[in-house]
Write a structure and sequence with these properties.
Keywords: Methyltransferase, S-adenosyl-L-methionine, Transferase
GO molecular function: RNA binding; tRNA (uracil(54)-C5)-methyltransferase activity, S-adenosyl methionine-dependent
Catalytic activity: uridine(54) in tRNA + S-adenosyl-L-methionine = 5-methyluridine(54) in tRNA + S-adenosyl-L-homocysteine + H(+)
EC number: 2.1.1.35
Helix content: 25-40%
Number of helices: 3
Organism: Oppiella nova
Mean pLDDT: 88
């Protein structure tokens, strides 16, 4: 697509694919772009993302910033028995107005 050769698109439920996709990256550093449903990410996905040693950067796209708060907190909280691996550190939040003349935005 557009001459890009170092990308792969996978269709299906994230719960079924996220572990195998991350494992298939070998020792290559990984950047993940997550666009969860309105309800947010399943906790099992958050745990897999947190525990993968080569996943250093995460882009989280949310259609409802209020619903994303739990996921964002879990992705950034200190390591624990539930959330192993280093926490992600928020760098910036950018609201995008896809719904003009409403009080909604993508984040």
């Amino acid at each position: 697509m557009n001459g890009i050769s170092n990308v792969e698109f996978i269709e299906g439920k994230a719960e079924e694919h996220v572990s195998s996709v991350l494992d298939s990256c070998g020792d290559t550093p990984v950047v993940a772009v997550i666009d969860p449903p309105r309800a947010g990410l399943n906790n099992s996905i958050v745990r897999v993302l947190r525990s993968h040693p080569l996943l250093k950067r995460l882009v989280y796209v949310s259609c409802d910033p209020h619903k994303a708060i739990k996921n964002l907190i879990d992705l950034c909280r200190p390591p624990s028995k539930t959330y192993k691996g280093q926490p992600f550190v928020p760098m910036r939040a950018i609201p995008v107005d896809l719904f003009p003349h409403t009080n909604r935005c993508e984040l």
